[in-house]
Amino acid sequence: MAHGEYLLDNLKESNLSTSDVQQVLRKNGIKSKSEVFVVIMETTGDMSVIKNNNVVPDQSLFNDVRDSELLIGPVMRDSKQIL
User: Which has the least CB within 10 A, 2, 4, 59, 65?
Assistant: First the structure.
């Protein structure tokens, strides 16, 4: 999940459903998908939830994350810019 949007191809490849992610979001006190900067499946199998806030993300913290280019700067999907 990046910028409050599910990455369905990544979920499918990880054999996860949106319900699996929703459970983790609730456990982390998330009330709206708009609060989510990113959900990362760690190598341990745990999911890390990072919330949106006013801090500019440090790209080096995400260098080892698949599709990390979606996290920094505008995200392009279907020829539309999602900010």
Answer: 59
